[in-house]
Design a protein that fits this description.
The chain is an alpha/beta fold. The chain has two domains: 3-246, Type I PLP-dependent aspartate aminotransferase-like (Major domain) (Aspartate Aminotransferase, domain 2), CATH 3.40.640.10; 249-426, Aspartate Aminotransferase, domain 1, CATH 3.90.1150.10. It is 41% helix and 13% strand. It is built from 15 helices and twelve strands. The chain has helices spanning 3-12, 53-66, 77-85, 102-114, 130-137, 157-166, 179-182, 217-230, 236-246, 249-268, 287-293, 312-318, 348-354, 370-397, 407-418; strands at residues 70-74, 93-97, 119-123, 141-145, 170-174, 192-196, 210-214, 273-277, 300-305, 323-324, 334-336, 360-364. Helix 6 links the parallel strand 4 (141-145) and strand 5. The longest helix has 28 residues, at 370-397. The structure holds pyridoxal-5'-phosphate. Pyridoxal-5'-phosphate binds at residues 76-78, 101, 103-104, 145, 149, 174, 176, 196, 198, 208, 210, 327. Belongs to the trans-sulfuration enzymes family.
Length: 427
């Protein structure tokens, strides 16, 4: 798809189609129900859980942008994942990557272990034997998330789809990190794409919602039936806002990416950063595949700080332009500590296996002025460097028997507070 076509589809979705009053911007239909002309004469809409004109406009635009036959707009990204899983039975095996979004990991593992909804196999797609392992497992569904969250690892979608076809398995790709502008998994052979539209598609951090797009119409019809049956279709107002956000996806994404490239360049020369994870880097293990299957490297990146975990709050507290918060893909820059935030639902062992270290930080680079973003990072690194030096000289001066609390232990306490124990039950 050329960018002009993409921009036109996104900008003009539903524009100047109103037959009632010739409204240019499509109206928002908040109605829950629809009048029948007479008994037995229902129109195309009857009840908004099943169908809604505003939601349908968004679904049509998403189906076209992803190159699918049918899109179903859901009330969250997680419910789009739940919807795809309706295709599995307890005899089926689902293969998932070892480093997917923590909420997806929680859903897969709990459905498999506590509900016996399907059998589950967790694969490291970065190991050279991943194809042999999948061949031996003979799954009914392969779940991909590429680039992965939070380590931006790349999986070869085309290779996975070729293998899946041989095994008659379905391939689902979570395309949240890139959006259909930068990656179209259906064109690479996938059967289903899921999105947390909460992220780049809406792009303004003011709607939690999701979508599922099917290559095949029949599969799409079946999943639309399930979405209505389960009651997980999206709300009309959310669809209206998401459609408004979608219109500017292309210019937003361009600015996100320009900024991300410069942030990556800055982090690479920063001595307190031990590793930068970004598929646009030529030494990233998935760079060549990303170049082939993506139309850009996106604006998500992660990095390891080369300090003790207790020093994390020094860095995080100093930031002004990067807000410490979950989520991603909004116009504003966010920073997150995956280990205690987005991926807290993974056990310490699962985090370690996935490579999520204690000082890993993830950035969702926004569209602010790049000079402000870089100055913000620079100021925070300066404070971190000062704190590291102070701790080092304190340690050198330390005399046996001294009991005064060190700055790092204060910071450890404040790190604990950030984890908000009240939310633990949700992890
Ligand atoms: C890659 C990915 N998939 C799915 C989800 C779940 O989406 P939602 O929070 O809209 O339910 C998220 C949320 O962060 C995500 O990052």
């Amino acid at each position: 798809m050329t960018q002009r076509q993409f921009a036109t589809i996104a900008a003009r979705a539903g524009i100047a189609q109103d037959t009632a009053h010739e409204a240019v911007t499509p109206p928002l239909y908040l109605t829950t129900t629809y009048r029948l002309k007479a008994l037995g004469q229902a129109g195309p809409y009857d009840y908004s859980r099943s169908n809604n004109p505003t939601r349908d406009l968004l679904a049509e635009a998403l189906a076209e942008l992803e190159g699918g036959s049918k899109a179903i707009v859901t009330n969250t990204g997680m419910s789009a994942c739940v919807l795809a899983l309706q295709l599995l039975t307890p005899e089926d095996t689902l293969v998932i990557p070892h480093d997917c979004y923590g909420g997806s990991y929680r859903l897969f593992t709990n459905l498999a272990e506590r509900k016996r909804s399907f059998k589950l196999e967790i694969i490291n797609f970065q190991q050279p034997d991943w194809q042999q392992r999948i061949q031996a497992i003979k799954p009914a569904m392969i779940w991909l998330e590429t680039p992965s969250n939070p380590l931006l690892q790349i999986t070869d979608i085309k290779a996975a789809c070729v293998l899946a076809k041989q095994l008659s398995a379905l391939v689902v790709v979570d395309n949240t990190f890139l959006s259909p502008l930068l990656q179209q998994p259906l064109a690479l052979g996938a059967d289903i794409v899921v999105h947390s539209t909460t992220k780049y598609i809406n792009g303004h951090s003011d709607v939690v919602a999701g979508a599922l797009i099917c290559a095949d119409q029949t599969l799409g019809d079946e999943l639309k039936w399930w979405a209505n049956c389960l009651g997980i279709t999206g709300g009309a107002f959310d669809a209206y806002l998401t459609l408004r956000g979608l219109r500017t996806l292309l210019p937003r994404m361009q600015q996100h990416q320009r900024n991300a490239e410069q942030v990556v360049a800055y982090l690479q020369q920063q001595p307190l950063v031990s590793k930068v994870y970004y598929p646009g880097l030529v030494d990233h293990p998935g760079h060549a595949i990303a170049r082939q299957q993506q139309q850009g490297f996106g604006a998500m990146l992660s990095f390891d700080l080369a300090v003790e975990p207790a020093q994390l709050p020094v860095f995080l507290d100093a930031l002004q332009c990067f807000t410490l918060a979950q989520s991603l893909g909004g116009i504003e820059s966010l920073i997150c500590h995956p280990g205690s935030m987005t991926h807290a639902s993974m056990s310490a062992e699962a985090q370690q296996v996935a490579g999520i270290g204690p000082t890993l930080l993830r950035l969702s680079v926004g569209i602010e002025a790049i000079d402000d973003l870089l100055a913000d990072l620079d100021a925070a690194f300066q404070q971190l460097a000062a704190s590291v030096n102070t701790n080092a000289s304190d340690a050198a001066d330390h005399k046996p028997g001294t009991t005064a609390a060190s700055p790092s232990s204060d910071h450890a306490d404040s790190a604990e507070c950030r984890l908000n124990p009240a939310l633990t039950a949700l992890w």
